[in-house]
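RECORD TYPE: inverse folding
INPUT: structure tokens
STRUCTURE:
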């Protein structure tokens, strides 16, 4: 059996300039339950992920995005 080859990473770029009120871009980084998706799922760099997370939190404060729903 051959060893598994790692899949090539998909790189994702954010539009410049990136702003918190661009809801369409932010929606692609949250799950259907409202949680922020992991960096390995979205394909962002660590710096980009921190920027997106801060923007999602700001958009939640302004009621543009939902807060995560309760589990049960």
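DESIGNED SEQUENCE:
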């Amino acid at each position: 059996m051959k060893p598994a080859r790692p899949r090539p990473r998909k790189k994702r770029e954010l539009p410049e300039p990136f702003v918190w009120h661009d809801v369409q871009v932010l929606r692609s980084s949250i799950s259907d339950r409202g949680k922020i998706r992991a960096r390995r799922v979205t394909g962002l760099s660590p710096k980009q992920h921190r920027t997106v997370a801060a923007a999602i939190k700001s958009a939640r404060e302004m009621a543009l995005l939902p807060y995560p729903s309760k589990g049960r």
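NOTES: The two ends are 43 Å apart (CA to CA).
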